[in-house]
Amino acid sequence: MLSVGSIVIRCSDLDRQLLFWTAALDYEPRVPLDEGFALLRPRSGEGPNVSLDAVPSERILPPRIHLDLYADDQAAEVDRLESLGALRVHWPKRPRGADYVIMEDPEGNRFCVVDAAPGDAA
User: Fold this and answer.
1) pTM for this entry
2) CATH fold for the domain made of 1-57
3) What pLDDT, in 10s, does the model give residues 31-55?
4) What top-level class would CATH report for the domain 59-122?
5) Contacts of 55 (CB under 8 A, 6+ apart)
6) Separation of alpha carbons 43 and 25, rounded Å
7) Does residue 121 carry a pLDDT above 70?
8) The dihedral sign for the CA sequence 21, 11, 74, 84
């Protein structure tokens, strides 16, 4: 049996990304931190880990893979993520009425915030 243990995000500024993703996801880093690598785990104990790997890599758009983050209050989460340094991404092909907002972290790694309010199909 396989399961997702960790999603790895490559980054240039490990400290900045560590601050962003721990606050964004309410995750905590495994200590002690490794040189150039941080494993973040959910404080609640539920969900996959997110690892940050300080290995700069070429940014490709559109990305081949991205995170879909489910939110019970999408508007509030988008505002909160923007206050942490995330940016909204305009995509002219986004369907009208789509249940997601495309965003990127402080280094341009894209993710979506999906409206998963009770009663909505996420």
Assistant:
1) 0.89
2) 2,3-Dihydroxybiphenyl 1,2-Dioxygenase; domain 1 (3.10.180)
3) 988 899 999 999 988 889 999 999 9
4) alpha beta
5) 10, 11, 36
6) 9
7) no
8) positive
